[in-house]
Amino acid sequence: MPKTKNKAKSATRPSDYFPDIDEWPNDWMGTKEDLEIGRGLLALFTPFIQHLIDEGLAKKTIKNHGSHLGILGSEIIRRLDGLDEENRTLSPRELILHYVDDEGGPLLSFWSPNDQTELAHHMAYDATCRKLLKFLTRKNT
Predict the structure, then answer these.
(1) Burial of 95 (0-12, 13-18, 19+ CB in 10 A)
(2) CB 17 within 8 A of CB 11
(3) Alpha-carbon dihedral sign for residues 72, 74, 77, 81
């Protein structure tokens, strides 16, 4: 007999899964200029999370994807505050399209390629980034 997913009826919005979602841009911020970019990234992440909820994914899966989005936002802002300052002129959507491709997201600054556990986490993060890219570039038919 197949198992049925245990879905809470009350969890229907991204904020139900991530009560602090509106604070993510503040968490990512390195400089004051980062806040607007972070808010723009969040404005793109939120409909994606809503899409995952609407697909009926398990709560843990949605939370994992959300965690990876938080890491992606932080990594994009970190890069803008470092060597990629010239990319500040890009829109939040253009930033995602610049840093995320068919292989996944940007290599995480704290990632150790020799740690198998971190490798597994990075692979899951890359999967979320690819799913986000597919969502952002889908054709509305």
Answers:
(1) buried
(2) yes
(3) negative
Closest CA to 104 of 134, 66, 63: 134
Residue with tokens 């841009």: 25
Q: Which residue has the tokens 């969502």?
A: 135
Q: How far apart are CA 43 and CA 22, in angstroms?
A: 10
10-46 residue pLDDT tens? 689 999 999 999 999 999 999 999 999 999 999 999 9
Residue 61's pLDDT is 97
Tens of pLDDT along 97-126?
A: 999 999 999 988 777 777 788 888 989 999
For 66, the enclosing helix (H) or strand (E) is helix 59-80
Report whether 101 contacts 71 (CB < 8 A). no
* 61-76 CB burial, b ≥16 within 10 A, e <16: ebebbbebbbbbbbbb
